[in-house]
């Protein structure tokens, strides 16, 4: 099993694993055991999992570098009235910021290749062993160029670009208003991981606005190393270099799929969509989650699969309590590259269900709260066609939550609940990575690495295998 065509056994990939993050946080003293447990372990309690910390307490091994195709851009943020004070837990002088984390998407077809470069250059997306990390960017360049034509086709079919920026801005606006209704006046910022507005810009804006307390809210209900984890790592890299952020009380809501408001909002959407079928009780509810490579869960301790399964249990229990007792199933979509991804795969399950005689199916995208290429193209076009070809007669799809008011109100409650636990502690002793400072080791790596990179990148076998797997 190889890691995304690198030729490196997947089982040997190191990356920065979730278990290591937990251990390192423990050893850095500043986060209590209790905080970590609440942040990483799922429970049936109906509150979010949040992690309060001071930025300087976190250890991050690798430097963040990314392609920046444009020289300037503005960060998206809702306006902030400095004189307005918030809810009971804040003081009149406090300036509360909410930072929404999201993936970002190409806005034009020209953006697609550099966007893909940013994505594949992320060490949380292609997880290379330490000694091979210098290959990250050349590999990202190669994979992004090879994959771009296929991705462009997808984006062209949904109007020439991703709707993510627009929808996320609308959600930011709606959240700000929902918080205002609850008497908390905030500035809501958007930080995208792979496209505009980039995380770094949102962070600069927070600093310029002199925010005094920050709640970080990833727009992914379930935690994965590859999504929320990656964005949080970037933030940690920025924060530990900056005295302002080291002193800023911060609370991170790591995952929130188990919140009552979210579960009920999802159940509402499903219930409503079932009614569009002529025989609603016969419809198979088909949850389709974005996949991750199996090694993330089995080797790196990514809680994503557990959280996904738990999330679906909670939604089905909620539906049951409303008298909806349809059959349901979960499958994983959008795999990339030759490695094993979480199973079962959406396309394979659709064919099986067709063979088994399922006639009506309601697809429910479950890992993301906005419409995006994988709902609009992959589910609505590719999977629908496959399902109909496989014998399924009646197809439906639940829309993404977007700005559904019960959902946004619940996110506002999550922010309010997270605020009291935002905390800052004194500057921690920084742990530097010895090997990063060791010039000899670096030179040796570079020498052998260059030879390997040459063999790797210019091998016709590798290039044709990449083409087969990425197109
Ligand atoms: C919870 C959601 C997501 C997980 C987990 C995730 C992991 C993951 N993704 C890739 C590769 C690609 N993802 C792409 C687009 C994309 N991914 C998500 C969400 C998750 N990804 C979203 C919302 C989007 C769409 C953004 C948009 O523009 O609308 C793409 C680009 C599109 C394409 O070419 O298919 C790639 C590539 C990996 C490798 C991965 C886990 C390791
Ligand atoms: Fe993805």
UniProtKB/TrEMBL annotation:
- Could you list this entry's UniProt keywords, alphabetically sorted: Chloroplast, Heme biosynthesis, Iron, Lyase, Plastid, Porphyrin biosynthesis
Q: Known Gene3D superfamilies for this protein?
A: 3.40.50.1400
* Main subcellular localisation: plastid
**GO CC annotation: what is one?**
mitochondrion
Role summary: Catalyzes the ferrous insertion into protoporphyrin IX.
**Similarity remark:** Belongs to the ferrochelatase family.
Spell out the NCBIfam families in the cross-references: hemH
Q: What is this protein called?
A: Ferrochelatase
Name the species this protein comes from.
Asparagus officinalis
């Amino acid at each position: 099993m190889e890691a995304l065509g690198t030729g490196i056994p997947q089982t040997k990939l190191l990356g920065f694993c979730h278990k290591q993050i937990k251990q390192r946080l423990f050893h850095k003293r500043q986060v209590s055991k209790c905080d970590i447990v609440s942040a990483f372990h799922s429970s049936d309690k109906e509150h979010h999992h949040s992690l309060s910390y001071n930025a300087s307490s976190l250890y991050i091994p690798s430097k963040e570098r990314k392609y920046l195709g444009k020289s300037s851009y503005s960060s998206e943020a809702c306006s902030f009235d400095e004189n307005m004070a918030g809810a009971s837990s804040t003081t009149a002088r406090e300036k509360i910021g909410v930072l929404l984390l999201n993936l970002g998407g190409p806005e034009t077809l020209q953006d697609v290749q550099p966007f893909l470069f940013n994505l594949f250059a992320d060490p949380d997306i292609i997880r290379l062993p330490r000694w091979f990390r210098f290959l990250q960017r050349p590999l990202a360049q190669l994979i992004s160029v090879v994959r771009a034509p296929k991705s462009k086709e997808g984006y062209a079919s949904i109007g020439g670009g991703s709707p993510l920026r627009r929808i996320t801005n609308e959600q930011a606006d709606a959240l700000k208003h929902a918080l205002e209704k609850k008497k908390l006046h905030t500035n809501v910022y958007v930080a995208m991981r792979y496209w505009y507005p980039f995380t770094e810009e949102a962070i600069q804006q927070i600093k310029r606005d002199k925010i005094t307390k920050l709640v970080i809210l990833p727009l992914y209900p379930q935690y994965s190393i590859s999504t929320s984890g990656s964005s949080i790592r970037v933030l940690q890299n920025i924060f530990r270099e900056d005295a302002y952020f080291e002193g800023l009380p911060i609370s991170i809501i790591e995952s929130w799929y188990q919140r009552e408001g979210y579960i009920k909002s999802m159940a509402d959407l499903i219930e409503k969509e079932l009614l569009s079928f002529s025989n609603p009780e016969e419809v198979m509810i088909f949850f389709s989650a974005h996949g991750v490579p199996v090694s993330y869960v089995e080797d790196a301790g990514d809680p994503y699969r557990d959280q996904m399964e738990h999330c679906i249990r909670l939604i089905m229990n909620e539906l049951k309590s409303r008298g909806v007792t349809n059959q349901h199933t979960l499958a994983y979509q959008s795999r990339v590259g030759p490695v094993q991804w979480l199973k079962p795969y959406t396309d394979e399950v659709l064919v099986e269900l067709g063979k088994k005689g399922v006639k009506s199916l309601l697809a429910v995208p479950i890992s993301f709260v906005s419409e995006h290429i994988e709902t609009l193209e992959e589910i609505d076009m590719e999977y629908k066609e496959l399902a109909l070809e496989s014998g399924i007669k009646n197809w439906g799809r639940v829309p993404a939550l977007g700005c559904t008011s019960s959902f946004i109100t619940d996110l506002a409650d999550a922010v309010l609940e997270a605020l009291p636990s935002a905390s800052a502690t004194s500057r921690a002793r920084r742990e530097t990575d010895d090997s990063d400072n060791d010039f000899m080791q670096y030179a040796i790596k570079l020498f052998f690495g260059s030879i390997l990179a040459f063999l790797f990148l210019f091998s016709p076998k590798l290039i044709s295998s990449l083409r087969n797997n990425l197109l």
